[in-house]
Every structure is written in structure tokens, then in C-alpha cells.
Amino acid sequence: MNTREEIETYLASLRRDRGAATIEGKAFDSAVIASAEIELAALHDAEGEAVRREREAAETARLKQLSALHTQLAVLERDRLQDLVEAEAATRQLAAALSRVLRTNGEMGKVVHGITGGRVPIPLSGPDFVSRLAGRIGAIMTTIPGCRASFGSIEWLGHSLYRSDQNWRDIEEALLKPHLKQISKEVK
Q: I need a labelling partner for 126 at 20 to 30 A (CA). Which of 58, 62, 63, 159 fits?
């Protein structure tokens, strides 16, 4: 098949030849022009069909991509909802555990006060204990990507005296152990 430009050039030449033949009174077979015009029209139709197919293929690809994005969105929403369930449960567990540890710490302070007659070690001091716990919570919260110093309206220092990977139990035990040893000696 010839290109559009070749057919158009050929048609222009044929029309010149027909014009010259008409001026000169010579016969010209116009069927040759009709044949070239039919070929040009067929080429035009083929180009139109190629464009239609390209658009159809692009639309099919777009719809396939859109379907994949919808699937991805559904999976992400399922994961997000599961993460919310876990975050809520962990937060509720944290609140319950903190309530218990604060209550127990307060009771220990009262017991120590009863033993010593007033002197309570700083590690059992309510405000000091809460401050240490808050610092440890903040140290862990700083590990949330994009939330170095806050999570919405909940704020903490962007740095902490405590590392996020420390074992709270072991540290608190080490802080209080010497004081408890001393207190137990007072009883004996």
C-alpha cells in the first residue's frame, strides 16, 4: 500500500494531466483518478480505524489500571481497618496497664511510707514515676514515621532521655532495687 503523501502526489499529477488533456482536447481516462481517490479513501479509513483501535486499547488499559487501583484501594482499606482494630486494642491495653501500674506504684509508696514513717524513695514518687513513663512512651512514639514530636493533638518531646528499645521493667527494677534493699534492712 502506498503512503498518503505518495497517493496525494500521484493524484495531483493525474489532475494536472487531466487538466492538460482537457485544454489540449485529448482524451483522459478519469477512472485512473477515481481509482487513486478510492485508494486514498481506503487509506483514510485505515488510518481512522487504527486511531480507533489505539483509543480502544488505551481505554482498555485505562480501565484495567483503574480496576487494579480499585482492588489495591480495597486491600489497603481492609489493612487500614485491621490496623485500627489493633491500634485501638493496644491503646486500651496501654491505658489499662498504666492505670494498674500507677495504682500499684501509689500503693507501694503508701506501704513504704508505713515502713519508714514518711520517707518514700524518688523512684516511687508519683510525679517522678509518671514523668519517666511519659518519657518512655514519648521515646516509642517518636518512632512513628512522620510523627517525631506529635500525633495530632498528642504531643511529646521530639527527643527523650529514654531509648525506645529499653525494657521498662528492668530499668524500673534497677532504679528501685537499692531503695527496697535499704528499706528491708530497716525492718530487721
A: 159
